[in-house]
């Protein structure tokens, strides 16, 4: 027996809820296309009722993705489910994922409902969802702290009502593997109609056990795992897709199931998500970390050269390492540029947009002769920022840094359409640049994080800078890329200010 393990990716919904990881519709679309290329079974595209922007993103993904099922999250109320249903309508295969809290504390304090009312509401939710699709997932929020008798009761009722997947989330990351597996085993045994659905788990990584808990649940009979690229997600994140997929693939002898994932797309997906969110991947991260397949010590190297399997349980090329190939150069034409963007799933809205982007590409190709996919993603992330959201824009800059002299920055900005010139001194050129920008913006924000990463290898690589700013409890990440890291820093800082300036309000469910 070799069952299929369904991979449900929630990078675009749960992953996006990491502080500062919010993405634009175009960015989400690019990630969705990559997930489809990787043959993810279900893409949770967002939470349609959270805001109009979220609705539009889910809908755009439902229109674009053909191979994977596209799913929207919805609370168990009529409005949420109708919004989700409308958003997934264009999908070739659409799923509604609805949830309600089932732990005594949540039912009493948050929902102010009795257990009977909660069951009744869940059943109603399935009925509304059925008007849109036959593919319905039900989650018991905070299942980890719910009473098992009540879980059995509500699951039996929603399966009877038409739910096709039952998800057991460890919302707060409190479970440990053996105990979580026992919970799954008990539920599958005790719910009378459990054989009619796929059992799913959704684990958070607060104790570093998300992947271990998910895999233990698979051993106990779960056949869907909810996960994210790079383990992105709220707090310590979710189970990471690449680790779950490769554990199951490498140890088929233990798991008796496999996924349909094209694993050679894993590293490109990881880089794409890291580039778009600005969350770098730690070098020792399993599968997708820069050192995951590096054999530094002499003894290991010798062993690997003589016989690869001495120290390697997987091959780097099987997960997509070494796949970053030269795609375009200085002499590439407009058509080559356009078709590469299309292959990457980057949407070009008009000829104007293309011309503008192509001009930027030529500028970059002059500075950096070899252009990789990662460069194009970075370029288009910059480019994708819609002008109406760009309150602040960098027009020109000049930085001075010399031994024994105080570093200085001179910057010309467009602020809401007006040109402003500013200069400042700082402890280094980046500090001077940020001070110069602040002297105009006066944002009163707190700088939480500043990081620089080389997008590709070589000293002519573009530097990608992430700046995380906080103000009144809101946290945003700004990104900027340039072959000059000080310019990239200024762009990243302005990008973060622009995000704070556009007051996007949204609700974040805890599932
Ligand atoms: Zn979650």
From TrEMBL:
Keywords: Acyltransferase, Amino-acid biosynthesis, Branched-chain amino acid biosynthesis, Cytoplasm, Leucine biosynthesis, Manganese, Metal-binding, Transferase. Residues 393-511 are annotated as: Regulatory domain. The keyword Secreted does not apply. Pathway: Amino-acid biosynthesis; L-leucine biosynthesis; L-leucine from 3-methyl-2-oxobutanoate: step 1/4. InterPro entries: 2-IPM_HCS-like (IPR050073), 2-isopropylmalate_synth_dimer (IPR013709), AIPM/Hcit_synth_CS (IPR002034), Aldolase_TIM (IPR013785), LeuA/HCS_post-cat (IPR054691), LeuA_allosteric_dom_sf (IPR036230), LeuA_bact_synth (IPR005671), PYR_CT (IPR000891). GO terms for cellular component: cytosol. Catalyzes the condensation of the acetyl group of acetyl-CoA with 3-methyl-2-oxobutanoate (2-ketoisovalerate) to form 3-carboxy-3-hydroxy-4-methylpentanoate (2-isopropylmalate). This is 2-isopropylmalate synthase. It comes from Pseudothauera rhizosphaerae.
């Amino acid at each position: 027996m070799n069952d299929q393990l369904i991979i449900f990716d929630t990078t675009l919904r749960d992953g996006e809820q990491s502080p500062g990881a919010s993405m634009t519709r175009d960015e989400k679309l690019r990630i969705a296309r990559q997930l489809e290329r990787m043959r993810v079974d279900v893409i949770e595209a967002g939470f349609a009722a959270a805001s109009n922007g979220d609705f539009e993103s889910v809908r755009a993904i439902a229109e674009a993705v053909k191979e994977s099922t596209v799913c929207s999250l919805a609370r168990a109320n009529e409005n949420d489910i109708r919004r989700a249903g409308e958003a997934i309508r264009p999908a070739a295969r659409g799923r509604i994922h609805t949830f309600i809290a089932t732990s005594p504390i949540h039912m009493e304090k948050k929902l102010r409902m009795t257990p009977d009312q909660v069951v009744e509401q869940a059943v109603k939710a399935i009925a509304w969802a059925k008007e849109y699709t036959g593919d319905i997932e039900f989650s018991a929020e905070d299942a980890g702290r719910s009473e098992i008798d009540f879980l059995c009761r509500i699951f039996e009722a929603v399966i009877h009502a038409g739910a096709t997947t039952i998800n057991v989330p460890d919302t707060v990351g409190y479970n440990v593997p053996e105990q979580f597996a026992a919970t799954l085993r008990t539920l599958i045994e005790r719910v009378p109609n459990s054989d009619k659905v796929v059992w799913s788990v959704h684990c958070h990584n607060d104790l570093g056990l998300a992947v271990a808990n998910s895999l233990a649940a698979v051993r106990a009979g779960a056949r869907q795992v909810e996960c994210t690229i790079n383990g992105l997600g709220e707090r310590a994140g979710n189970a990471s897709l690449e680790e779950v997929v490769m554990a199951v693939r490498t140890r088929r002898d233990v798991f008796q199931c496999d996924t349909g994932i094209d694993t050679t797309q894993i590293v490109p997906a990881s880089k794409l998500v890291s580039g778009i969110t600005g969350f770098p991947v730690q070098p020792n991260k399993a599968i997708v970390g820069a050192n995951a397949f590096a054999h530094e010590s002499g003894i290991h190297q010798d062993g690997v050269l003589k016989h690869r399997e001495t120290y390697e349980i997987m091959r780097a090329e099987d997960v997509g390492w070494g796949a970053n190939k030269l795609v375009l150069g200085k002499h590439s034409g407009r058509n080559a540029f356009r078709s590469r963007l299309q292959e990457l799933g980057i949407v070009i809205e008009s000829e104007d947009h293309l011309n503008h982007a192509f001009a930027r590409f030529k500028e970059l190709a002059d500075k950096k002769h070899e252009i990789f996919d990662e460069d194009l993603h970075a370029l288009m992330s910059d480019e994708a920022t819609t002008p109406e959201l760009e309150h602040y824009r960098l027009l020109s800059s000049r930085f001075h840094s010399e031994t024994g002299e105080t570093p200085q920055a001179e910057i010309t900005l467009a602020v809401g359409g007006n040109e402003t010139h500013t200069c400042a001194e700082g402890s280094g050129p980046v500090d001077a640049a940020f001070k110069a920008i602040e002297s105009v913006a006066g944002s009163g924000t707190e700088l939480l994080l500043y990081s620089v990463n080389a997008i590709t290898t070589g000293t002519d690589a573009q530097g990608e800078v992430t700046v995380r700013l906080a103000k009144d409890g809101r946290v945003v990440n700004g990104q900027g890329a340039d072959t000059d890291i000080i310019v990239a820093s200024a762009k990243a800082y302005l990008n973060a200010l622009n995000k704070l300036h556009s007051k996007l309000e949204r609700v974040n469910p805890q599932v």
